[in-house]
Fold:
Amino acid sequence: MSGYAEGIIILLCINAIAAMGVSLLTGFTGIFSLGHAAYMALGAYTSAILTVQHGVHFFPAILLGGVVAVALAYFIGVPTLRLMGDYYAIASIGLGEAIRLILENWQSVTRGARGYPGIDPYTSLPIAVGFFVILAIFMFNLINSRFGRACKACRDDYIASSLLGFNTARIRVVSLMISAFYCGVAGALLGGFLSFIQPVMFDMLKSTELTAVVVFGGLGSMSGCILGTAVITLVTELFRPISQYRMLIYGAVLVIIMVLRPEGIMGNRELLSWIKDPFGRRS
Amino acid sequence: MTRVGGDRLPSSIRERGDPYLATLIQQIINGLSLGSVYALIAVGYSLVYSVLLFSNFAHGGFLVIGGYICYAALRTFNIGIWMAGALSLVGAGAAAILTERLAYRPIRERTNVTLYLLIASMGMSIVIENIFVIVAGGRFRALPPVIPTTPVNFFGLATTSAFDLLSLVSAVVFLGALQLFLSKTRWGLAIRAAAYDLRTAGLMGVNVNRLISIVFFVAGALAAVGGIFLSVRYTLYPQLGAITIKAFVAAVIGGLGSLPGAVVGSLILGLAEMLTAGFISSQMRDLVVFSLLVVTLLVKPTGLFGKSVSEKV
Structure:
């Protein structure tokens, strides 16, 4: 396989891992985020610093990257997710900006805005695919578990679900923590793939892209979000020559999807159920 | 967030008296001035939130539209700042109505899921920003010197710029006008009713679509005022709208959907930012903004004047 194709597949796996995380939060729990790049940044920097400066093996470093992101998610989720409304969305924008500023200004640890070079390129094709497959299996089981159904209940009607005895605030926070773990791992893998990371890579545009991919694929469909990632990642590669108009098209597509087909490509159905029963009732 | 130029540093504080006190007074004036501009933006955003219950992330776009219209009017038609300002207010208001018609109304009519509106508004903010990147280019533009920035001596204690005082005064005027509009007119009454319950207001015979158009026009016009002052302060560029994040944060600190809250939150934020810039470090100010947000959410999550948002079950 050529290096270019291999690179695209690795990138696809990384993007899909992050998108699955955002999909759990936005698609299944109904919480909108505009700062998930911050969790990716934390994962990337944690893993980079651990492997380069402390000689930790990359595997625990990647997992620790995810764990640090989870810790931040807990800290930020507990005050904001108890409230209904757009509190988390706004806090997440602020969070994304603050994390980026800290990374840019904390010269002694992160080497500032010029970026962190010399990361061992540990994300090979098998590693990326391996992480993707394991995390995907876990996620597909999670959304059909008791917890996954509780998330959907919180999304659809939080009053009814709390009447049924679900602790909605806690479910929302746990959902955010799992989603932060996925993004942290994705960030750590990205660092290992590019072997160079920079705070500006994790700006608000990246956060927007993560959410947009999930919306495009279908809110409430895990296979849809993977499909959406594949489409967007490949289209981004195709659109490289006309990058000037890329963002305009991208924004317009987002609006048009919301106006014409807010449920995205897949709606809330999964690929498998669609193949088995193409005209069946909506699950 | 890109920041160009920075705010004018204390220029003549060393002249006489206690330099520490002079800096303090100067930064308080700067802070109130910046805060009042945030207030113009935050109030419009809060107004939309109070009626439609979603965060309009395209609000920053209205600000940029206002700024560019003012710039174009001043540069090409060579008219005075009053005409250019009026044009920019009307233009941004019209753009806001158009945004609502194109992107939000079709969604609003079909579903009451505010998440879709939120995502559409994010898309619109990207669209507006990139239209200006393509049409006007990503360059930084300075408005012609229409707003005086001559230094004004403040009772011999501190020297400040006429611009800061002007932006403070105009913000007070516009916010006062908004308050009069909301409390004295029939449409103001309707908007207050809609903020309480949009559906019931509709059942009482309020033309909901027209009401929402009016709300968006007001929000867009106020954002344009903020946009003109911000583009004098920081120069004009397509990503200027990103500054709206500060106004969102201010609205949350004051309590989402509450107009007095938005004003108070904005003033607190402006003061905090300028005092940080004056006494600690200019780079820390965005961090201070975010810390204020987190502290508010931890201590009093509904903000200073917010309604309780968690329903009792």
In short: Strands of chain A lie at 116-117, 196-197.
